[in-house]
Amino acid sequence: MAFTLVRRKATTVEARAGLQAGPLAAVLGVALLAALTAAVACGSTSIPPGEVWSVVWRRLSGETPRPGTDDLIVWQLRVPRALLAALVGAGLGLVGTAVQALVRNPLADPYLLGISNGASLGAVAAIVLGLGAGGALGLSGAAFAGALATFALVWAVARRGGGFAPLRLVLAGVAIGQFLSGFTSYLVLRAGDEQQTHSVLFWLMGSLSGANWELLAVPAVAVVAAGFWLQARARGLNALLMGDETAAGVGIDVTRLRRELFTVTSVLTGVLVAVSGAIAFVALMVPHVCRLAIGGDHRRLLPISALFGALLLVVVDIVCRTAMDTQELPVGVVTSLIGAPTLLYLLDRRLGSGS
User: Fold this and answer.
1) Alpha carbon of 231 to those of 220, 223, 241: distances in Å?
2) Of 2, 42, 65, 91, which has the most beta carbons under 10 Å away?
């Protein structure tokens, strides 16, 4: 009887999932395709959407590209950047959803847990100290190492004295993240020249300007692999939201699942930070907005968060490239302008509800 009650409690989150998840996914998919088309068409040189798809079709079908600047702009410059924005946005949506389930707090994200700070420190160290000789792979490795080391440290602090307290994990992440940010600032000051300093600062605020076809491989593999892995453990994530005892009561190895989540989110965060810099608030906003729309069942929440995250970052990148005539805005500037009010709204909702 007790086991039956526990299982019913664990499936409460799944029962709340709305039936509109399928149509919503279709709408988001169409909107993402339209946003990707707009991202390739818009810029200092406008290219008609029909020509965009003509270039893409010729490239995908193996036809000989037409000579001219349109083919170069579309295929070599804008398509990789649009795809990178979609991959990073989808990855941030997945990471935010996983971290919020991990600590049972819809206000958690890789920044609050210090993961992004650790990944940033690793990547900046690779740039400033010349440790990123391996190009994108070397930078991703450095960012991943920083993210994993930070998560291990945060986990160790949060687990001191036995047990697991989500609030302690968040507080440890915030404190350690700020500590690492100090080291990152010191490395920025040690940059060898003004141009390097400017590049690092721009990268720390988020940038997709370095996108190319070679750079897409690592984040594509990381996002797809993490997405499948998280989707396979959606029921476990649902159970975590109901508490450790409930999760254990339905057969979930809570300690093992948390360790695996730490590893997967660290890998994905490290790779995303390495290719796009530190983009704030996306991992916080996306899962919460999607949760309000379709409920908390991770079987539906994970794919919807990935789609919405991809759409959001593609649109943000369009704004960053076209808002100013003389220069490009860092992606993190726009996401912060959107995310900070969103965070205040979420805090107001939680305080108002007494949760």
Assistant:
1) 16, 12, 16
2) 91
Ranked by mean pLDDT, the top range of 26-35, 63-72, 100-109, 332-341 is: 26-35
What three-state secondary structure class fits 145? helix
User: Which of 18, 28, 20, 70 has its CA nearest to residue 49?
Assistant: 70
Q: Could you please report the per-residue DSSP string of 53-83?
A: HHHHHHHHHTPPPPSSHHHIIIIIIIHHHHH
- CA angle centred on 64, ends 60 and 65, rounded to 5°: 80
Please give the structure tokens belonging to residue 159. Answer: 């687990």
Residue 148's contacts (CB-CB under 8 Å, 6 or more residues apart) are 118, 263, 266, 267, 270
For the segment 264-287, what is each residue's pLDDT rounded down to a tens digit? Answer: 888 898 889 888 888 988 998 899
Site of tokens 């039956």: 4
3-state secondary structure 300-330: HHHHHHHHHHHHHHHHHHHHHHHCCCCCCCC
Q: Select from 73, 116, 70, 34 the least CA-distant residue to 282.
A: 116
pLDDT for 6: 42
- Max Cα distance, the chain (Å): 73
Per-residue burial over 266-294, b if 16 or more Cβ lie within 10 Å, else e, is: bbbbbbbbbbbbbbbbbbbbbbbbbbeeb
Tokens of 137: 């792979």
Contacts 24+ apart (CB under 8 A), 253-260: 257/233, 258/102, 258/164, 260/233
Residue type, 338: I
Beta strands in 187-245 (DSSP E): none
Torsion angle defined by CA atoms of residues 314, 78, 216 and 329, in that order, rounded to the nearest 10 degrees: -50
> Would you call 223 helix, strand, or coil by DSSP?
helix
Rounded distance between C-alpha atoms, residue 99 and residue 81, angstroms: 27
Tell me the CA end-to-end span of the chain in Å, nearest whole number: 30
